[in-house]
Amino acid sequence: MSLNKFAPGTGFLRDDMGGGIVEEEAGNDRTEAMWLLTVEERERILAIKASVLVDDDVAESDGSAIDAIDNGVDICWHQCDQEGCDYKAKLACNLKLHKANIHDIEVRWHNCDQDGCDYKAKEARSLKKHKANIHDIDVRWNHCDQDGCDYKAKDAGNLKKHM
Fold first, then answer.
1. Strand, helix or coil at 69?
2. pLDDT for position 5
3. Max CA-CA distance within the chain?
4. Is pLDDT at 85 greater than 90 in this prediction?
5. CA-CA 20 to 30 A from 97: which of 12, 88, 134, 160?
6. Can you tell me the distance from the alpha carbon of 32 to that of 99, in angstroms, rounded to the nearest whole number?
7. Count of alpha carbons within 13 Å of 120, Cβ hemisphere only?
8. Which of 1-15, 23-37, 100-114, 119-133 has the lowest average pLDDT?
9. pTM to 2 decimals?
10. How many angstroms separate the first and last alpha carbons of the chain?
11. In sequence order, which residues have a C-beta less than 8 Å from that of residue 127 and are 6 or more positions away?
12. Residue 12 carries which DSSP code?
């Protein structure tokens, strides 16, 4: 892992490992903050910026992306387009999760497959927890280690209370 640093006396950033000059001239707030990032982090940020269309007309018309500066680094914010919602995320996948969890948009429901149970969850881990707690499926039991005690609990906190 290498760090970007200002090359002494040049006013340019350089790659600490390769010694090459990075394309941006130092001296403004954005590039001065970039030297704190690893090369890999910087490349990831630039790749994200390149993959997202940030056009002033598009950003104003549908609110899907707004250009913002966070700690001196350009970040493309993804803003929720639901009326009255101020949520924004740095990553599109987080906005997608927000829309599913808060607004029920593009939700993939996970349904319990047990007879007579109509439980459904937005996340697979919630369904797994439901099956363990309600139907005793794939339960990891916590056993009391005291001699002669047969107490067991699904939740480690309950075992602790028992002690």
1. strand
2. 44
3. 76
4. yes
5. 134
6. 35
7. 7
8. 1-15
9. 0.42
10. 47
11. 110, 111, 112, 119, 120, 121
12. E
Per-residue model confidence (pLDDT) at position 87 = 92
| CA-derived radius of gyration, the chain | 25
Q: How far apart are CA 67 and CA 88, in angstroms?
A: 12
CB 4 within 8 A of CB 35: yes
**Which token pair is 149?**
């005690």
Give the confidence band of 52 by pLDDT, cuts at 50, 70, 90: low
Higher pLDDT: 20 or 139? It is 139
Tokens of 95: 């906005």
Residue with tokens 């940030």: 54
47, amino acid identity: A
β-pair type (12-15, 21-25): antiparallel
Cβ partners under 8 Å of residue 46, min gap 6? none
